[in-house]
Design a protein that fits this description.
Blueprint: H1 2-5, H2 13-68, H3 72-83, E1 88-95, E2 103-108, E3 116-127, E4 130-142, H4 144-193, H5 216-253, E5 258-263, E6 270-273, H6 284-288, H7 294-297, H8 300-315, E7 320-328, E8 334-345, E9 351-360, H9 362-383, E10 388-393, E11 398-401, H10 403-409, H11 413-416, H12 421-424, H13 432-441, E12 445-454, E13 457-471, E14 474-483, H14 485-507, H15 515-531, H16 537-545, H17 550-559, H18 562-587, E15 595-597, H19 599-611, H20 614-617, E16 626-631, E17 636-640, H21 642-661, E18 671-679, E19 682-689, H22 696-701, H23 719-730, E20 734-739, E21 745-757
Parallel strand pairs: 16-18
Antiparallel strand pairs: 1-2, 1-4, 3-4, 5-6, 5-9, 7-8, 8-9, 10-11, 10-14, 12-13, 13-14, 15-17, 17-21, 18-19, 19-21, 20-21
Helix pairs in contact: 2-3, 2-4, 15-18, 19-21, 21-23
Domain Histidine kinase: 509-755
Domain PAC: 321-373
Main location: membrane
Length: 760
Amino acid sequence: MVKFLKIRKGQVLPYKLLVYILICSSFFTILGTSVQLYMEYRSDVSEIQKGFGQIEHSYVNTIAASLWDINIDHVKIQLEGALKLPGMRYLEVVEMSFGSVDPVAFIGKVPAGGNVIEKNFPLVHVIDGKSVEVGQLRAVADLDNVFKRLRLRVFVVLLTQAVKTFLVALFILMIIHYMVTRHLQTMAEYAQEMDISTLGRELVLKRRKKNTKPDEIDRVAEAFNEMRLNLIRDIAERKKAEEALRQSNMIVEKSPMVLFKWRNEYDWPVELVSQNVSQLGFKADDFMSGKVKYGEVIHPADKAKVEEEVQGFIDAGDDHYRHEYRIVDPTGRVYWIADSTVVVRDETGEVTSFLGIAFDFTEKKTAENELARLRNLLKNTIDSMPTMLVGVDESLRINQWNRSAEEDTGLTYEQVAGTQLMDVFPQLKDERDLIMDSVEKLEVREKNKIPFNSDGHIQYKNIKIYPLLESEDGRGAVVLIDDVTMKSRLEDMMIQTEKMMSVGGLAAGMAHEINNPLGAVLSGVQGTERRLSPSLKKNIEVASELGLDLNKVHQYMDKRGILGYLRGISDAGRRAASIVRNMLEFSRKSESSRTQVQVKGILEKALSLAENDYDLKKKYDFKVIEIRRDYEQNLPAVGITETEIEQVFLNIFKNAAQAMADKDFTDERPTLTLRTRKDGKFVRVEVEDNGPGMDEDVRKRVFEPFYTTKRVGLGTGLGLSVSYFIITRNHEGEFLVESEEGKGSKFIIRLPAGDNHENE
């Protein structure tokens, strides 16, 4: 075969191709055979499973009826028929009427091997509408015949596939040799013989040309020939390059870069310097004649540093280095010089001279020094601020970090530079849109009382975002973060004090142990319902001992409404428990955690609390106040601290009810109207009463702390001021009041709407 394919000695690729083709073909042959055998195995097992299904649907009921009639002969006939199903080897029937486990009839033999499928079918006979299990049918099938057939199938398939694989691999190898390998050998021989003297000979492959489209082999041959032509052109252009080099020297003389070469001796005598050294105030002839050495023009304050740096580069074995220093021209003018130098060594590695370029960057250095001074001034100013200052770019990556931020977080600027703001301050993730909006619209934004978790303790911060004008680096912003934890705690103390005054009024209307008798009532009702239920076995046993039909007793109690009374008692008890629970929840100290809730639910809960306020009922009764509800459907939820908003609404209801109690109503009833509306990006809540109203002076001062129109001992004047603080500062909302004397009052609250829209 080797001679037929004309494979030469030393060629490796044909053999590798043959091996890889055989390996891949064998792998896919075995894989395909395995899949085919597995599918046949699944088909045979499926036939056996169908036999089990036929036994279950066609034989089980008949055998159960024969076993019920004790007709064993008929049972055996049915077993003989079932044994003819595919794969079935053993069937037996066990009667279970008398606790026996021995078969009453069986046929076939249990296979000895482990390749069996066994199923048990309960034999159920229906008599007088009741199902009675009379026995069990055991069916055993084996897979030996299946595996024998599959082993024979494996041998046949693998043998035929192996022959096919070998022939296909041989044919592919022939094609590859004809189309690829022989041409690669020709190109290799051409490359080995190529030199300058043979560049004129073109690479030609022995291929048939019948106007066919060039393939990859043709393209490689074209690449060889193109490379040959490129070499010819490169040789021709080399002379042009030499001429260009001469002209480039002329360009250097007119550039700001000064070329130099000096010897590695004391004070560095100059061997070569370009004529444009005159721009630094020197003459090239002075250096070339030895009149002036390069070391002599270096600034005295920098000379020792330059010598030390150069010696350090030499000792380190560096072949190229850069450094900056000052020189002084004959008139005393100082220049800042930057040089890029190559170290020249002899055969022994000793440094003989230096080659390089030097240029004047005095103006740039002066600007850099001024910029550094301004940066230090700005940094000192920023670091002296007690507020955390964090600069971010338009992608919210940190690019500024003052000392207060470093002390507060324990992170240096090097640790946070380029980091996402939200990764360093995860508490600001919810404010991302606020910061991005400030950057995009170039408007100042702020948000107050944001909770920060610090070592398990909650701190509150106010943030203010100042956008930066667009520059070469894009837009950005400065984020100021103030710690207002102590201030927030004082404000929370004021809110809690007012809340506790309301809670005191609520708690006075209920006994301390109200939950104990309430629990006993609910427990008793639940126990009564359980002991009357016919579904409990113990109830039936006790009723039978007394000669009672518990079902009829239950029907009697249902028709007489007794069960309804019990359910009513249970519902009333749960409502009472809910009232107590709401009051206790309201009395707990707020943790200022916000959730997305519907204002309708908060209004109804606050109404429920107000209606059960004992102190309020001494002067007025909510039962005589008509509550009108005008709720808009499909309002968005609001993100609020639920207990704080409950306190606001409860305070408004309390003030409205007290005001209406002071008015004499003749033709109308005291009315409290609750109204909700979607108002742009806000949810608007209106609480309107038809009480005596307020004059303009009172209306203007109604939110002032300690201002009250009530008699001494009836109010502190903090209720509405605290409520105003909760709405405007804690929730970024608005709190307004509209009133005319004699025409009632309307309190208007606008809360920012959340993103989630839920149906009320």
